[in-house]
Amino acid sequence: MASLGRSSALISAGTMVSRITGLIRNMVLVGALGVVGSSAANSFAVANQLPNSIFALISSGLLAGIIVPQIVKAVRTHVDQGSAFVSKLLTLGVVVLGAVTVVAIAAAPLLVLIYGGKFSPEGRALALALAYWCLPQLFFYGLYALVGEVLNARRVFGPFAWSPIINNVVSIIGFGAFIWLFGLTRSARDWTPDMIALMGGTATLGIVLQALVLLLFWRRAGLHVRPDFRWRGIGLRHIGRLAGWTFLMVVVSQIAGAVQANLVGSASDVGAAQFAIQTAWLLFMLPFSIVVISLGTPYYTQLSEHVAEGRTDAVTADLATLTRTIGVFMVGILGAMIAAIVPLSRLFANDADEAVALAWVLAAFLVALLPLSFQFGIQRTFYALGDTRTPFLYTTVQAVLVIVTAIIAFVALPLPWLAVGIALGQSLANIIQFALAVVLLRRRMARPLGLGAAARAVVRFLVAALPATAAGWLTFDLLGGAAGWAASDRLAGFLSAALIGLVTLVIYTAFLALLRAPELRTAVRTVRRFLPGR
Fold first, then answer.
1. Other CB atoms closer than 10 Å to residue 443's CB: what's the count?
2. What is the pLDDT of residues 433-444, one digit of tens each?
3. CA distance 310 to 173
4. Taking the chain (534 residues) in consecutive chunks of 10 residues, what is each chunk's mean pLDDT?
5. Mean pLDDT for the chain overall
6. Does residue 436 contact residue 301 with C-beta atoms inside 8 Å?
7. pLDDT at 532
8. Which pLDDT tens digit goes with each residue over 129-144?
């Protein structure tokens, strides 16, 4: 447990710094492109998202869900501690990534049409020009994830969490240079080749450096790796069977995402659209990344080890502990984000009206923050068990609901509210997906999951969060609300969000103490690991 705690603290620190610099990156990007009613921002959002979407399609689920357990198994059972297996795996991965990147660049016009079909002709042209600059990121996203997961499997957790900071620093410098040279540019009609090269080149250079820096830490993995094209004998048939379901799972998710992006593109010039959704999602994922990923990544490695040892009781105990630990943090953070939602949004908006519009989108996403956080442990348990078929099934249900709710929002809502409706539909789909995943995991393990105590703990957390959130919202109201000082500019938004968040979390902690929640001690120990000398 001490080792898990240190690993979680290391990942949390790296993820926190990474996400904070990522927030600054997006603040600078908003200063360059705007966020609401900006065709240029939405064109960049689609172009820069394409390599992420394709990478998720070909390998994200494969890496996270399959490679880690396979490497753990190879380390434990192979004489060379998995060096030959990893050599073949990396060689195969680099070849596949290179080929897919070339095909993606050739298919750029079709990809832009799929995701930005409802853009204006100028918006589609700008998205295509930026896509040619951004799509090479695909290869380096894959390299970063492949090398990072190998390091994680060998319990070298830090570099994978810290290296994105390099990407954010490069982007801040590049986007800042764009503002200095060209100023705020909302319209897709006003872009020149120099502007496209600077914006797209900056985005891609950051990803390249983020991937290459991981190679500096390769020795820590203790593996001797060389190019090896002899791929027989590494269990490609077994990996392929597992990856087949994972691939299909990501396919249905990407189809749902493409439908969302295409429909919301019709609001590109009149209100919150694709870039607003991406920005709200970035804020939504900030606590998820800092808390859930940092706590869950070491647990996932341990889950895989316990499965390899046949210790089913330890697997359910890990899941219950992870759920309670995630819950005590995420419930408090949810309350703070609700109370400070407008000042938080003001950090990524150019005026108070934009902040309110963005806050509505963020609020729609926050509906599912807790279910999505708890689902991380459920899904990783399936992966540790070598079951990728079941996650495909419940993700397909979620994807269908996302598509249906997005179409309903497109038909029923005025364009300025379309992004809010699509985000709310996503949240409702995630809630149903989580409930289904819990039921299916219990059936898969043929035994109770032991989550009853964890559920009661979450109820305690929610009871403590209610007065804390009310106090935070009262603080926001005393600062003038959306029309007052709290949303007057970015600095005021930052200061008021910090004050509101502090008030909320202090009262939340006090009520946890009054309720004698045992998880509070775990939270305090986790936080103390960030303090100097701990």
1. 10
2. 999 998 998 888
3. 50
4. 54 72 88 81 89 69 54 60 69 82 92 85 91 93 79 67 87 94 84 93 93 78 64 60 67 84 79 82 84 70 68 76 87 95 91 90 94 87 79 90 94 90 94 92 78 87 95 94 89 93 95 87 69 49
5. 82
6. no
7. 47
8. 999 999 999 899 888 8
Instruction: Give the type of residue at 65.
Output: G
- Both tokens of 431, joined, read 């809630």
Q: How far apart are the first and last CA of the chain?
A: 16
Please tell me the distance from the alpha carbon of residue 105 to that of residue 51, in angstroms, as a whole number: 10
CA dist 425 and 317 (Å) reads 33
**C-alpha to C-alpha distance for 49 and 123, rounded to whole angstroms:** 15
Where is 385: in which H helix or E strand? none
**8-state DSSP, 468:** H
Residue 232 Ramachandran class (φ > 0 left, ψ -120 to 50 alpha, else beta): beta
**Sequence-ordered list of residues with C-beta below 8 angstroms from that of 178, at least 6 positions apart, any chain:** 32, 195, 198, 199, 202
> For residues 183 and 400, what is the distance between their CA atoms, to the nearest angstrom?
41
Question: Which amino acid, 323?
Answer: T
| Euclidean distance between CA atoms 16 and 94, whole angstroms | 29
The separation between CA 457 and the C-alpha centre of its own chain, rounded to angstroms, equals 25
CB atoms within 10 A of CB 177: 15
Q: Which stretches does DSSP call E strand in 302-396?
A: none
Structure tokens at 167: 């990407």
Q: Do residues 268 and 34 make contact, with C-beta atoms less than 8 angstroms apart?
A: no
Q: Using alpha carbons, list the distances in angstroms from residue 280 to 226, 294, 343, 492.
A: 42, 21, 13, 19
* Gap between the Cα atoms of 430 and 401, Å rounded: 9
Give the residue carrying structure tokens 């990803």.
Answer: 207
% of the chain with per-residue pLDDT over 70: 80
Burial class (CB in 10 A: 0-12, 13-18, 19+), 142: buried
Phi, psi of 243 (to 5 degrees): -70, -25
- Angle separating helix axes 389-412 and 236-264, nearest 10 degrees: 10
Query: What stretch of H or E contains 60?
Result: none
Give the Cα separation of 407 and 416 in Å (integer): 15
Q: In the 8-state DSSP scheme, what is residue 225?
A: -
Burial code (b: 16+ CB inside 10 Å, e: under 16) for 461-478 equals: beebbeebbebbbebbee
How crowded is residue 112: how many other Cβ atoms within 10 Å of its Cβ?
25
Q: How far apart are CA 484 and CA 489, in angstroms?
A: 10
Is there a contact between 24 and 168 (Cβ–Cβ < 8 Å)?
yes
User: Residue 6 has which token pair?
Assistant: 């240190």
Distance CA 40, CA 26 (A): 14
